[in-house]
């Protein structure tokens, strides 16, 4: 069975063309092994591309721990690029993911734009510091904006420790949450630096698509206007959106690169 490795701003995935339904999705130990960075291929998650009536394809996603996961934005963009590579789509896609239907398109420069679900207005987080908010962008996200008097930049911030504590706080039981830490730029038009602790990976990742989407929407309360540019450790992403009268968001698009790294045999 052939596998492909893709990455979107450093968020990396094992992808398998499973239209023939040959991959055992119930074998969580094997999926975790394939994602292991010492004993396997190494990835933040594994995706299966499958046929689905009424859609170009279905996205089936697993976290690095082998468990089925909620929506992954960068994963969705990478799977769209892969679908184009194997000839399932041309430049536009209509596919089904765990959080519902999505549309996407591949631009001439390789940028993949993914239409995300509508998102409710940011809610005040039950834990954390004043100003922390919670949003569900296909996956749950806690967003913390750094206090510039304490941490002017993200460079020296302990994302693992702070993210781990919030991810496992009883306020988010039983499923837990992803946690994003944001440095507020002097000019809201400049890129917003973001670092993310991801559940299922249980560590900081180089980038998180649903995470930067949550940050961009939350940043709209702090002067950011669509489109918002965001800088992750793995590169830059862009999120555009329209705000509804009720404070929620619609027409949300996540854009950025999606690159095939290598392929091999299982």
Structure description:
There is one protein chain. By secondary structure, this protein is of the alpha+beta class. It is 15% helix and 38% strand. It has helices spanning 28-35, 73-85, 159-167, 209-219, and strands at 2-8, 11-17, 45-50, 57-63, 92-97, 100-106, 112-115, 123-124, 133-136, 140-145, 178-182, 192-198, 203-205, 228-232, 235-243, 249-256, 259-265. It has a 17-stranded mixed β-sheet that branches. It is globular. The N and C termini lie close together (5 Å).
- Count the beta strands: 17
Beta-sheet strand percentage?
A: 35-45%
Poorly predicted tracts of residues: none
Cα-atom radius of gyration: 18 Å
Structural class by SSE content: alpha+beta
Element order: H for helix, E for strand: EEHEEHEEEEEEHEEEHEEEE
Which percent bin holds the helix content?
10-25%
Q: Tell me the major beta sheet.
A: 17 strands, mixed
Name the overall outline: globular
Query: End-to-end span in angstroms?
Result: 5 Å
Chain-averaged pLDDT? 97
**Helical element count?**
4
Task: Lay out the secondary structure.
Layout lengths: L1 E7 L2 E7 L10 H8 L9 E6 L6 E7 L9 H13 L6 E6 L2 E7 L5 E4 L7 E2 L8 E4 L3 E6 L13 H9 L10 E5 L9 E7 L4 E3 L3 H11 L8 E5 L2 E9 L5 E8 L2 E7 L1
Parallel strand pairs: 2-3, 4-5, 10-11, 12-14
Antiparallel strand pairs: 1-2, 1-17, 3-4, 5-6, 6-7, 7-16, 8-9, 9-10, 11-12, 12-13, 14-15, 15-16
């Amino acid at each position: 069975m052939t596998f492909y490795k893709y990455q979107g701003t450093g968020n990396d995935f094992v992808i398998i063309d499973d239209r023939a339904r040959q991959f055992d999705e119930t074998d969580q130990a094997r999926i975790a092994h394939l994602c292991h960075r010492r004993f396997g291929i190494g990835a933040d998650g594994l995706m299966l591309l499958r046929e689905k009536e009424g859609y170009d394809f279905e996205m089936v996603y697993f976290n690095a721990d082998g468990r089925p996961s909620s929506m992954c934005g960068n994963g969705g963009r990478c799977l769209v690029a892969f679908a184009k590579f194997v000839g399932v789509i041309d430049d536009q896609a209509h596919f089904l993911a765990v959080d519902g239907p999505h549309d996407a398109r591949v631009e001439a420069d390789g940028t993949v734009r993914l239409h995300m679900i509508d998102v409710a207005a940011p809610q005040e987080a039950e834990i954390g510091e004043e100003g922390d908010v919670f949003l569900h962008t296909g996956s749950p996200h806690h967003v913390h904006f750094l206090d510039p008097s304490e941490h002017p930049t993200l460079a020296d911030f302990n994302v693992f420790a702070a993210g781990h504590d919030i991810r496992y706080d009883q306020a988010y039981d039983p499923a837990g949450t992803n946690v994003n830490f944001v440095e507020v730029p002097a000019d809201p038009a400049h890129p917003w630096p973001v670092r993310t602790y991801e559940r299922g990976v249980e560590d900081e990742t180089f980038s998180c698509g649903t995470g930067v989407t949550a940050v961009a929407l939350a940043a709209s309360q702090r002067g950011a206007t669509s489109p918002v540019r965001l800088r992750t450790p793995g590169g830059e992403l862009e999120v555009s959106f329209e705000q509804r009268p009720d404070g929620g968001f619609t027409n949300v698009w996540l854009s950025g690169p999606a690159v095939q790294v290598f392929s091999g045999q299982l």
